Each structure stands twice: as C-alpha cells, then as structure tokens.
Amino acid sequence: MSAPITRVPQIFPAAAPRFVGAGLTHRGLVRERNEDSVLTDPSGVLWAVADGMGGYGHGDVASDVVIERLSKVMDDTLAAQDLRAQLHAANSEILRRSQGSGQMGSTAVAMLLQNSMATILWVGDCRAYMLRGRSLRLLTRDHTVVQDMVDQGLLGDGDRERHPERHIVTRAVGVQQDVEIDTTIVPLVAGDRLLLCSDGLTGCLSDQEIAGYMAGSDAPEATCEALVVASLEAGAPDNVSVVCVFALEGA
Q: Per CATH, which fold does 19-248 belong to?
C-alpha cells in the first residue's frame, strides 16, 4: 500500500490594484478668481487638493505653495512622514511670504497610494471620501468650528451644512507657527473609488449626491466633470476642486 499523498493547493494572492485618476478645478459662479489648486499624478501615486483662504488675501499663492511642496514627495517615500514634512515646509514658506503681503493660508488634503494602501493627510475642511460598492465613506474629519460643535453635542450632524459658521476652519496651513496635521491609512481593493475635494463641492452637494455621481461614471475624468457641473448647477458660490482616483484590477 502506497503512502498517502498530501497536496497543498496553490494560493495565488490577488494582484495589487493599479490606480488611475484625474483632477478638475473651477472658479465657481461667484468668486472673482480661483484660489484652489490640485495635484494629479500620471503614475497614479500622489494626489492633492489645496483650498486657498480668500478671506486672508493671496489664497491662490498659499494653495500653490502647498501643491508645489507636496509635488516634491517621492513615490517610494515613507508616505506619512514625507507628506507631513512637506506640509510643515509649506506652512513655514507661507508664513514667510505673508510677512510682506498680508496674512494668507490654505486648507489641504493629500493622498499617497502605496502597496494597496492610501495614506491621507489633511488640514482644514478639504475632504477625502471612498466609495466601495454603493457605500460612501468619509475618510477625514473637518477641522471647523461647526464640526467641534457636532462633536460636543451642541449641533446635530444633519445641521452642519446649514450653519452660518460652517466655513470657519480651526486649522490651516500657513496661519500659525505650527500646524497640526491629521492622518489616516486605508487599505484598498480593486473597485474602490476615491475622492479628494475642497469645501466648494461639499457646500453644494450632499454625500448622497456625491455617491451617486461617483458610482454613475465609468472614468475618473467623467466623475470629476459630473461633480463640478452639478456644483455649478447648484450655484457654486465658492471655488470647486475635485480629484477622483479609481482602483482597477491589477495587470
């Protein structure tokens, strides 16, 4: 009688997703100029949105500084460490520039994609979302007076978008000597869709509407265009900026 043979089935790990994306920014229908800036990456790794604070003047300069600094991050870097370092460098540069031209600042959200993980850093009320299937998940928490009121139980979550102080941020790049940056890391799978945006989008569209447009388009470029057009149709009182990234089946 021959000895029993044990066969171990081969398990082939799922290929890591590959990422494609696009970005779009628009002045909106009320502002005289666009003080938002976006960072898109042909290699699919590094993405960002920066929203210059118009109330301080030279917001476009501040958002450009943030994007320029973030663009120096290398694809194979230690994601959170290098993104954080560049945001701190942007904070120092904006403070230096503001000495001669008046106070300015920028909110920002940045995302680096490595090894099927999204590392996201943000300051202020720029947001990051992930759509998985039909479920939209907010990945960031606004640094605003209204969010603090919600956290303290002084305001209902559904009332935040109607509150008169909803645009008052509690953190921004380039306003104080030190900037506090929040970080989250999210594992990704093929089929996930990611969105970075300025508050010009979320001030016009609900999360439910955003989810509908993200699910209804078959390409990042089309998603960006649909979101911006919808914001314009809703009045777009602020600059509107979006970056959409799709996680596709690996090659």
A: Phosphatase 2c; domain 1 (3.60.40)
